[in-house]
From TrEMBL:
InterPro entries: TPR-like_helical_dom_sf, TPR_rpt
Organism: Streptohalobacillus salinus
Full protein name: Uncharacterized protein
Highest taxon, organism lineage: Bacteria
SMART domains (alphabetical): TPR
Amino acid sequence: MKTKSKGFKPNDKLNNVIPYIQEGDYFFTKGVEAFYKRKFDLALKFIKKAQDMDPKEALYPSQMSIVYTEIGAYHAANQILNEVIEQHGDDYVDSYYLIANNYAHLGLLNEAQKYANLYMEKAPEGEFFSEAEQLLTVLDMTLEEEEEFFDDEDDLIIYQETAFYHLQHQNYKEARQLLEEALVVYPDFESFQLQYRYCLYFSGEKERALQLEKDYFEKHPHAFLSMVNLIAFYHDQGAIEKAKDLTSQLKNVHPIHQEHLLKIACSHAIVGELDEAYERFKSLSKQKVSHHLVYYRIYARVLYRLGEIEAAKQLFTEGQQRHKGLSTEAEPWLNISESKKLDDE
């Protein structure tokens, strides 16, 4: 394992930080200082700047993942760490422990156990070996207790959050597999059924998914979220008139739930009803929907096409700063394929 500088780790002490002198040193050091002042947004900006200056240095993304862990963005942290492992292999073996720690926070105990064991196997004299041992002890005890006292509500939340993450990042096959498992446990949970049909369509089984959705909508003609799915499917297949006909039925639908209102706004956007989409987006509470990547993708494109160029650029830049998943994406008005998907059903 490389030993240039260990930067910082969760709950570390400031006097243990030993930033190294290299091209990105200044910004990395500023990021460390901001971290210990609990200015996490600023820490992320500085470390990202250091990474931009030296993209081959694995230390920077590793430390960025720790900031995400500190603010509770465990999925984002693990995405970064998996990229570090993919690019640098076992040179940064500590990534396995950090991933295990994040999975434990998410309640995905079997995954946490898997990565803790991997870390101990690969780094028998590693810096986090004793912490990994302690984590495994807790995980073993917790898993044993869960076998006797399984908490259905906690499990439901884990399924919901993990499915949401995969859908946000358009990992449709992974989301589909997870939802298939969830539907075994919760066969009547309509949200999982809706998401499953969406994932089924965009993971390749288009005709089957479309027929399932049509069958469901026929039995539940007022299910506007089923309409949202059908609009996306019809638009993807080029059946624009069918998509627009369904979208017209949404004009008098004004749900209280902000995420449902977001879906309706996106539906108007993808069929080209920009003015209606704009009004819907404008009525949203950004605070309640800003965790949806689609909010930034679709709303920014609507603004751009309505001639609000600077507003579109500002909104998407804000989204890129907030979400790592958007940081490598092209501006959405340049990406035609984005208009076919609502991403986070």
